[in-house]
Amino acid sequence: MTKPLLQIALDSLSIEKAIQDVRQVANFVDIIEVGTILACSEGMKAISIIRSLYPDHIIVCDFKTTDAGGVLAKMAFEAGADWLTVSAAAHPATKLACQAVAEEFNMLNPHLKNKKEIQIELYGNWTLQDAESWISSGIQQAIYHRSRDAELAGKSWQNEDLLLMKNLSDLGIEVSITGGIVPQDIHLFKDIKNTKAFIAGRALTGENGIATAQHISSEIEKYW
Amino acid sequence: MTKPLLQIALDSLSIEKAIQDVRQVANFVDIIEVGTILACSEGMKAISIIRSLYPDHIIVCDFKTTDAGGVLAKMAFEAGADWLTVSAAAHPATKLACQAVAEEFNMLNPHLKNKKEIQIELYGNWTLQDAESWISSGIQQAIYHRSRDAELAGKSWQNEDLLLMKNLSDLGIEVSITGGIVPQDIHLFKDIKNTKAFIAGRALTGENGIATAQHISSEIEKYW
């Protein structure tokens, strides 16, 4: 068990705005995510530019890959992403294709600072049995979140969310948690031992971004 | 019931290659799809360039939207897409957000040649009851396909596929069909009355692209 990391999600429409957003807090986060909106807007250029600016951070490409896994994984990893999100709803063959590309990269580059990894993004109807099959495929990470749209519709963290995350963690899956994360919520997740990262977007890109990052980090220190 | 349309899916890594691929068959297809691979690689520029080259075609943005529906839909429609794919696994709020953006566009622009529409892309575990809820939300289209990775793994069209598509069609959903479509397969789908389009990629971009497009069109004439 290691301490959860802090991840900033960049979800602006342009790379220029994303750079502006990440610049102030880069030294206070471990992981920089090129979010779906940014990736869809700017394409792979968004990954390669963030990689060139931040050679030492873990970089996530949040494609929520749903098909064509082999091609998208190769493209994302070659552009500089370390981790790639894959939708839980993707066909098992798609997940396997992404994982195979990651493993090939890791085998060919044994001295990578950060291994290429796949993160299953939990959308749609999935079961703990599915999660066991991901583990069997060599996949170690999953992302649990309130849907952005559900969040905008005012839905908060439920006990049901927390229990599902705990179950995943207890299976051995490293869980990243996202969806309007604020420092005041961190304690809610203290029983999820395998918390890999907390992912925040707007909370870290605003005026008080650095203070918020430090506040989340100090909450993490308290509970893990 | 109208005759199914023919859609080319552009899934190259670069817009230059995509333009090369579409140019020869553009006059033989009704719909041009900026596929997931192309959209993820080039970003929104891929949509706006294809739109400027083909002002009269229906253009599909194949994001397989899984979250942040409102933002992605707005971005895709503003760049020139007519239809946007949304993953069946997306939260209902995400689907509603996309549909709301489409309806707002249509209301503000009553003279659009092609209405903005959402297409539910059938990934993950979904039911006919889900499909009924999409219809209630005002969504009229769905896309049924063999997963690209499943197809690469050698899985063909099954009776189960055909029955599910027929059920969707009988509910009133317009179904587009994709996954290694070739002229010889068109007859398989003749009982799916509400077939909206056949989507082909590699079959239309190769050396025999025009002949294949014409062959698919003549098969459509035979069966619808």
TrEMBL record, chains A, B:
<dbReference type="InterPro" id="IPR011060">
    <property type="entry name" value="RibuloseP-bd_barrel"/>
</dbReference>
<keyword id="KW-0119">Carbohydrate metabolism</keyword>
<dbReference type="Pfam" id="PF00215">
    <property type="entry name" value="OMPdecase"/>
</dbReference>
<dbReference type="InterPro" id="IPR013785">
    <property type="entry name" value="Aldolase_TIM"/>
</dbReference>
<dbReference type="InterPro" id="IPR041710">
    <property type="entry name" value="HPS/KGPDC"/>
</dbReference>
<keyword id="KW-0456">Lyase</keyword>
<dbReference type="InterPro" id="IPR001754">
    <property type="entry name" value="OMPdeCOase_dom"/>
</dbReference>
<dbReference type="GO" id="GO:0019854">
    <property type="term" value="P:L-ascorbic acid catabolic process"/>
</dbReference>
<dbReference type="GO" id="GO:0033982">
    <property type="term" value="F:3-dehydro-L-gulonate-6-phosphate decarboxylase activity"/>
</dbReference>
<feature type="domain" description="Orotidine 5'-phosphate decarboxylase">
    <location>
        <begin position="5"/>
        <end position="216"/>
    </location>
</feature>
<protein>
    <submittedName>
        <fullName>3-keto-L-gulonate 6-phosphate decarboxylase</fullName>
    </submittedName>
</protein>
<dbReference type="GO" id="GO:0006207">
    <property type="term" value="P:'de novo' pyrimidine nucleobase biosynthetic process"/>
</dbReference>
<dbReference type="GO" id="GO:0004590">
    <property type="term" value="F:orotidine-5'-phosphate decarboxylase activity"/>
</dbReference>
